[in-house]
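Following the same procedure, sequence and fold were stored together, as reproduced here:

>
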Amino acid sequence: MASELQKPTKKNRGFYVKMRVLHKGRQPEKSIFFKYYKWVLWFSFTLYFLTSFLISNKSISLSKARVSGSKSSLASRVLFESVNRTSHKSKPKIPASFKDLKIYIYELPSEYNEDWLSNKRCSNHLFASEVAIHTALMNTYDLRTFDPYEADFFFVPVYVSCNFSTVNGFPAIGHARFLIFSAIQLISANYPFWNRSLGSDHIFVASHDYGACFHAMEDRAIDDGIPEFLKNSIILQTFGVNYKHPCQDVENVLMPPYIPPESVQRTLEKAPLTGKRDIMVFFRGKMEVHPKNISGKFYSKRVRTEIWRRYNGDRRFYLQRQRFPGYQSEIVRSVFCLCPLGWAPWSPRLVESVALGCVPVIIADGIRLPFPSAVKWPEISLTVAERDVGKLGRILEHVATTNLSTIRRNLWNPAVTRALLFNEHMQEGDATWQVLDSLYHKLDRSYRRSSILSQ
């Protein structure tokens, strides 16, 4: 079937109307309708084309992304989308730095993505960047191509983080490998693009604790490793460290965890960024009194337990161990927000702290942070070594009396927050924009580009 998917030719489409009125001498008067017949017909066609244009230019919703898995329907869709790609346009201006980048999005059967959205948490929890970036790419028409033969990269939208455990409510990702492998089998059987590059120009999202290792516990993640079928592809992931690690031993783009921009906006409408901050140091989250849990591992490498043991009761620290849905209202009242590691080094608190103007205090040795060219992390945050948690009080007191105002000024730059948030429609400088900018610097992996250069 792959041989059937030849590049479609462009054909002019539409229809041509020609009217002739033959005058043989003076004709008798016609009816009013006949007299204005050509004007009525012209108006009808104009209305038809205008209506068609408005319908075709609506934003693409994920609910429309249903495709049959049959070979014939996939082949037909390639042809249909190729000739109709110019009908999908986006209003936002695409930055010149990657204006010629083209991405093709596979439209997989709904069990790979859309069906998971029946649970509303799927598009709003901390791993939901897999949904957010898919949505943004679907609506970025100037970069999205409907002709796979002109694509630089191929995006494979598989949601693996929405299988929430009925026991603890956390995402269970044991099915991730099978689901992604199944998608690869489908696209490689029905399209020629995976096989010709062995997947090197294909993009997947792994927004989990340890990326494409697909496990929340580091030792298990390392033992399992990245599956062979993904090792040649590009992974968009939230996990990153600045030392060699098996779970980032793949071509990757580091991106932030997902925080709904609407929740940030609602919080700031009630409490402005520059408002009163009456909490000096804030942290709400899991802090075990007895850190050895059922897995036999120490959560947060004992860092959170040490924070609780040393600073619970310290009036400078507002520490809470219970969950609270309105915790963003506490962040926006705080000067410093602790961002210690959990099972993995990264945390959504990092994004929330930046977005709500609270200086992030990063306690996760060796963490690699997203988009360093757009977000100057040393200028907007503090990094404290895990072994120095006992000195936290003195360190923050010193910063508060010296360069806090400079850090805040850098932190409160709107461009910094924009770089860490995903929007339904990509905005210049936002998280999707940063991902695309990173991909643009990986164009050497594009089969199409290498083929052109070799000619």
